[in-house]
Amino acid sequence: MKRWRNLLLATGLLALTVQPAMVLAQEEPTVDLMQFIPEQFRADFADLNNDGIPDLGELPPEGVAGIWDDKVGEVTDEGFLAAVGSGYASGDDGSALTGPCKGVVISYDAEGMSVDAMFDAGGPQPLMDIYGRQKMTKSNPLDVDTRGVLVYYGSSQPETFHDHRWFIEAAGVFKDDGGDPNPRDKNRNAGSVDFGDLLPFSFTALVEARGAWVDNWGPTELPEMAADAYPTPNCVGHGWVKFVGPSPFLTPPGILALALVAAGFTGVLFNARPALSWKE
Questions:
Q1: Residue 93 phi, psi dihedral angles, 5° rounding
Q2: For residues 120 and 101, what is the distance between their CA atoms, to the nearest angstrom?
């Protein structure tokens, strides 16, 4: 008994002496994410937990769905499993985003406190985190709370896409797609995804994600191809997302897809609440 008491005392002493050193060694952000949030929305954010990422006050206003946006998703189990259940293995542990697209993505927990973030400033630089490291790699994935909210602000400037089509998917979890003629020349957007409201249950999984947005494609669904196979301009990206739930154990994408379809999930997340788009 005495030995256990001494062990507990030693553990407590170690925690008291080591913790301050860990705090002192904590990385300092090198980027201010507020620069990527349009000015009209900045008042809705403040860094309440002092992690260098703006915490959420209000969600961006809901927009109008694109003419070709799919708001239904897969209507059969077979269709859902064919779309996301087989998963895919690119063999690439990195991440990339090509084309004129740029912006910021921030994930939050159910209370609106920041979990993780990434940004793309345009140009040849990869997706980055606030510490100056490449983001959405397998070793540095974008963490997403399955009970929380994702907020994003994007731009295609200086390009404006017309008759465009897009898709975004995460293996074993979801696939959204859509598009619009864009007669009003919109080149900015702001949107959110409420995972806690849309997902039927929480889970933990590390999955590959990818997407594309292509100009002048028209109403037909966009196939998955290499960036140089699409008409230009286009934006094509891939990387890694870690969905974080209460369990510490990772669920393989194939098993996760079976559980989601059994719970009645159709694969629609981003199209459930259309992004707000405007011209700037």
A1: -85, 0
A2: 8
Location of structure tokens 């090198």: 30
Asked if pLDDT for residue 85 goes beyond 60, the answer is yes
In whole angstroms, give the CA distance from residue 176 to residue 169: 6
pLDDT tens-digit profile of 110-143?
Answer: 999 999 999 999 888 899 999 999 999 999 999 9
Alpha helices (H) in the chain, listed in sequence order: 2-24, 77-80, 195-198, 253-262
How many percent of the chain have pLDDT more than 90?
81
- CA–CA gap between residue 160 and residue 187 (Å, rounded): 5
Strand pairing report for 96-98 and 102-108:
unpaired
Distances (CA, A) of 175 to 31, 55, 72, 129, 251: 31, 27, 11, 24, 18
